[in-house]
Design brief:
It is built from 15 helices and 14 strands. By secondary structure, the chain is α/β, with parallel strands linked by helices. The two termini are 25 Å apart.
Length: 525
Amino acid sequence: MQNKPNTVLYALLCGTLLSLSWFFGLTAFIFIAFVPLLIIENYFSTLEIRRKKLKLIGLTYLAFLVWNIGVTWWVWFASPTALVAWTVNPLFVTVVFVTFSNIKNKINKPWGIWLLIPVWLAFEYLHHSWELTWPWLTLGNIFSYKTNWIQWYEFTGASGGSLWILVVNILLFQILNGKTFSLKSTLKPLLVILIPIAFSYVLLFTHKNTSTLKEQTILIVQPNIDPYNQKFDEDFSIQFNAMLAQIRGKLNSTTDYLVLPETFMVNNINEEYLDKAVDVHLFMDSLLSKFPDLTIITGACTYTIYPDEKSAEPTARQQNDGSYIDFYNTGLQISKNGVVKYHKSKLVPGSEIMPYGSLLKPLESLALDMGGTSGSLGIQKERVVFEGMKGIKVAPVICYESIYSDYCTEYIRKGANLIFIITNDGWWDNTPGYKQHLSYARLRAIETRRSIARSANTGVSCFIDETGTISQPTAYWEPAIIEAKLKPNDELTLFARFGDIISKICAVAAIAALLYYWFLRFFKR
């Protein structure tokens, strides 16, 4: 039996290294963060003692709890449901890691440790897809702070970063576990780190947008309206007039797009009468009458009424007259050609949607009011692309949706030439939350090679080019207006064309490994 490591200390070290990787420019720590946990797992796998699995579960949970709180402590500023995220999400990844450990030890082969990769990536893929989704801590997201390292995300997406991290950690663990510190053994993980970075710099310096589409002049507004104490209580006409004052002298006949943030239009609008809505006509009468070639992208609060329960969606709630009403967090395109809508469909669990509402319907009232309406919001199954006055197509990505890599590629496959992210990052106060949210958007630019215009009610509004470089970032909690010319792109990256191939392959491999584990456990003794 090997010497006993200080397992609690190692668990704390794992959680600390994972946390530090997200802060202070210490991204490289991610390449060693899992090594302490792998040492713990390997130690317990050699023991023949009672309750060793319970001890492994407890130590693994401790490591991931430190990681979750260390990186997302700011969620508390938005909602007490942070306690759920802090406790449940570490439990999920603990189950993932312990499942890997069980499979590895049952197969009992030297290569078994590599099963961590398909099991972990399969979970990340699931965590992007089910209703308990919370992919904020997807490992590949960490490189949003080092975009010069991962220009190859145009081929792999963020899952390629997760794969990279796990490969390096396993290689380093094998060196420590084998206690062989020869030049040959240490050269392998070093090359695995350096070769992707070198390739990334080649892509960075050779990337060029060869599209023949014409540049678009984009004007972004950051209104900076307090979402807690002002935005949803103040008359919208006051906020609209304040916006007009902001853009006075900036908007002209050369402006192609005016971009406003999520839920800028705070009054609930019946979607049956979108073209006739009073607040929509404020834009038409004040702006489109003067600039008929202008296209306006804005967030809004909208709703649909159903006559009875049979015709209603599951998220609709009953009204006193027996009808049902469904509320949406909506993106609107307003132009002289009319109004086009898109419903935000990746909703924040616990605030915009109660996961598995058919089972937890009584708890919907506990959802935080984040957007003017509490309880579960409605969604739509298909992405919608907005086509502007000059034929340019835009992906209207709303807030939380911007952290979903494969989800955003659906807009691109539908023809989007640019990405507009509209958000409201004032819920988290002046914490790392809004900075992380901004940083993750850089990955979407690289994966799709689409320039991004990002309008935040407050937080950071900016432009992001196709290599993930941010320009003209606004200050937090200050009204601002910025303008730039963005070059549309009509070419598909490998990731945009085929989606998250790596995660899908890993999901299949993980299922096969799990089936083999059950076979060995119950049929082959």
